[in-house]
Amino acid sequence: MVPYHKEAESHDYEPSVIRRFLLRRGTGTHAPPSLHAKMIDLYWTVIPVLLIHYYATHPSAQFDGLRSKIVIVLTWVWSIRLTHNYFRREKWQWGAREDWRFADMRLQYGKHWWWISFFSVYFSQQILLIGICLPLYVVHLVDKPMNIWDLVAAGVCLCGIVIAYFADTQLHNFVTRNTKLKELGKPMVPNLDRGLWQYSRHPNYFGEQLWWWGLVVFAWNLGHGWTFVGSLINSMCFAYVTVLVEQRMLKQEYRAEAYRLYQKTTSVWVPWFRSSAIAVKDKDT
């Protein structure tokens, strides 16, 4: 929630709702400049890595060695991708901008913003982060031989990472092109509807959720399916922020009409096969 976020102007450029809507802190009227505001995105890419190594090296840990190595490697790959995307989005600067949703929140609550943000953002994020990482704990709690479900879980996690990477890369290229068009005084392209974005309006959200639900499959296979609660809450946050993002798109005059059509021809998250409307358009072309 922020004063101005160029990339949010074009599409949802946030790989995780938790890191963007719940976590980003700005430097507005009711909040002095804070280093923590600029570090919070990276905090979310680092903590899961630290947690999994803590669980794996704990004296009371019990686990299958191969499963542990697979999950550790996947967590590192996920973290590296997310960290790279963060710095690429910020033009290789450390927290140069603030998310527009946090600025909106500050304007909405005025002088009460500081204590509302403390509970709804900073305190809640600690609980949410631990909860969503519980499958990493379970992997190092149960010593059970690997089976086919571990391969399924690893496949889901890997698919999530790959989808999020390509979705964010396509979005980054789109935003970069639009920025150049704006600088040249030329009309900007209203919507990104190529690549993964021609099937889903938020493929980056979809990829990120696949990652976390893949971890849940690991835990479920080890007899701790209850750990789905963290990922469920995460998906609920994604759903809420998706609504906010789409409302914002429809308020921008230069893209409102195109975005309404885009909504009719795509899925919200899941990249289903293209709808008949798109197929007809391609056929006519």
TrEMBL record:
One of its GO terms (cellular component) is membrane. Signal peptide: none annotated. Keywords: Membrane, Transmembrane, Transmembrane helix. It comes from the Eukaryota. Pfam families: DUF1295. The chain crosses the membrane at residues 42-58, 113-136, 148-167, 225-245. The keyword Membrane applies. Gene3D superfamilies: 1.20.120.1630. PANTHER family: 3-OXO-5-ALPHA-STEROID 4-DEHYDROGENASE (PTHR32251), 3-OXO-5-ALPHA-STEROID 4-DEHYDROGENASE (DUF1295) (PTHR32251:SF23). This is Steroid 5-alpha reductase C-terminal domain-containing protein.
